[in-house]
Amino acid sequence: MIVGIIDYGVGNLGSLAHSLQGHGEVRLLANPLDAIQADRLILPGVGNFSDCALRLHRTGWWSALLDAVLGRYQPLLGICVGMQLLCDLGHEGAEGSDDVGVSGLGLIRGEVRHLSSLGCELRIPHVGWNSIELPSGSTGLFQGIPNGTDFYFVHSYAFDVVDQEDIVATTNYGVLLPVAIRKGLVWGVQFHPEKSSKAGQIFLKNFVLTEVC
Fold first, then answer.
1. Transmembrane stretches, by residue range (predicted)?
2. Residue pLDDT, tens place only, 167-209
3. pLDDT, tens digit, 9 for 90 and up, residues 112-136
């Protein structure tokens, strides 16, 4: 099993690659043409949505990812901003009176909005450990992970999902937030599995070694 981590200039690539050791062959993919080599693809992301979207375009990864998912049906996992990039529209970096948002990959319906606009009145950014709720139980990529397990978060924006059936897990941070989403072979998580100790290791192992569809 070959796991390709998309290297477009952002993300915790080293720690993510280290967390995947022992779960297949891990490759950092800087060239979009190399996406075809991978059995699984991971899109990391940290920082600003608009900046990350621009980097995907400039590096050629935008079209390569759409080809991989929609053309070759390769499983994809987005982490943190990588999850947010799966949306239709993101508002980070596009704020202002004429904010019309920045286009996402459009693989899972929804928009990425600031936590305060979603009703959160707690301290922003949301940083640290928080427990997740699994409405459908510990299945799929959460197999072996009990309901209520803590994962590590760092974010000021969240995915406002259109289709509620796409939500796999939530957390409560002053408001209920989707923190794991899925549409077919495409998964996204707001937390950082590579920083989430044993639970994060189990999650990444499940992505590599289990059926994801």
1. none
2. 999 999 999 999 999 999 999 999 999 999 999 999 999 999 9
3. 999 999 999 999 999 999 999 999 8
Domain of 67, in residue numbers: 2-209
Q: What is the pTM of this model?
A: 0.95
- Looking at the annotation, which residues are catalytic? 80, 192, 194
Residue 98's pLDDT is: 58
For the chain, what is the domain count?
1
Residue of 202, 197, 164 lying closest to 181 (CA atoms): 164
State how far the alpha carbon of 78 is from the alpha carbons of 107, 174, 193, in Å: 11, 24, 11
| Residue 212, Ramachandran bin (φ over 0: left; ψ between -120 and 50: alpha; else beta) | alpha
Residue 37, domain CATH: 3.40.50.880
